[in-house]
Specification:
mainly alpha; two-stranded antiparallel ribbon; 5 helices; elongated; about 140 residues
Length: about 140
């Protein structure tokens, strides 16, 4: 049965038991076989825009996105020219790359700081520059 819209007093276009959560759930990723990374990125950008526009209202189901292989992702993270070569990159992939680059930079800074701390010797660090002289009888 259709719900009655409160402000218009007419029947709505969707049944009362319509599953809105199922409508906005992203379908499983497509397998990246037979397509180049650039082709998949173009498809993903178009699908991302379509999905963003379609979630504003009830309409056709969301389009699936292509997944990315781990080797391709690592290449994108470590090579900025490769990113521009296979671009445009969809927003979700750009965010993931930025987060991975930040995590790698933070990890390298921690490693560098750890090596600096480990490299300093504490031997002789407790030697006083001006030893205390005691005067007898005081």
């Amino acid at each position: 049965m259709m719900g009655i819209l409160a402000n218009a007093s007419i029947a709505g276009s969707l049944p009362d038991i319509y599953n809105f959560n199922g409508h906005i759930k992203l379908p499983p990723a497509l397998t990246p076989t037979g397509c180049t990374l650039r082709t998949r990125n173009v498809h993903n950008c178009a699908a991302e825009k379509f999905n963003k526009d379609i979630t504003q209202d009830v309409g056709p189901p969301l389009e699936p996105l292509y997944g990315i292989l781990q080797e391709e992702f690592e290449e994108l993270v470590f090579s900025e020219p490769y990113c521009t070569e296979v671009g445009p990159l969809p927003l979700f992939l750009r965010k993931k790359i930025v987060w991975e680059c930040l995590a790698n930079a933070e990890k390298s800074e921690k490693d560098k700081a750890g090596k600096e701390k480990a490299g300093k010797s504490i031997r002789g660090s407790m030697v006083l520059g001006k030893p205390i002289t005691r005067v007898p009888g005081q």
